[in-house]
Structure formats: structure tokens, C-alpha cells
Amino acid sequence: MIKWLLAVIAIVVLVGFLAPRLTKWGWGRLPGDVRFRHKGREYYFPIVSTILLSLLLTMALRVIR
Question: For a disulfide at 45, which of 7, 12, 34, 65, Cβ 3.0-4.6 Å?
Fold first, then answer.
């Protein structure tokens, strides 16, 4: 259980670090990704990008097995 928790934390930190750099390459600008500003803060919900990433990882794992 602790290994999974550490893995999830590491992934969240890695994505948080890479997210600003990935937007330069077009990641997170897909139709369906929600971004808005409220009271000087920017909120971002990458709905379609997350679905696309999930599909790519699922296909990659199926090819490996």
C-alpha cells in the first residue's frame, strides 16, 4: 500500500513539474480541456488530455503484454 502511495505522489509531483513545459508543445490545449481564471488564479482541468493519455498508456501496456 505504501509503495502505491509513494508512486502516486511521485507521479503527481512529476506531472506538476512538467505541466508548464508540456503546454509549450500543445499538451493541454485540446478541445475539451477547461481553463479559466477566477479572482486572479488560473484553474485548469485537462479532461480530454487525460482521456487521451489513458488511451495511449492502455494501448502501450497491451502491446507490451
Answer: 34
Would you call 46 helix, strand, or coil by DSSP? coil
Model pLDDT for residues 6-42, shown as the tens digit of each residue: 887 887 777 777 777 777 777 767 788 888 889 998 8
Locus of grid cell 488530455: 49
Cα separation, 59 vs 43, whole angstroms: 30
> pTM score, two decimals?
0.58
Locate the domains of the chain by residue range.
2-64
CA distances from 56 to 2, 13, 20, 25, 59 (A): 27, 21, 21, 17, 5
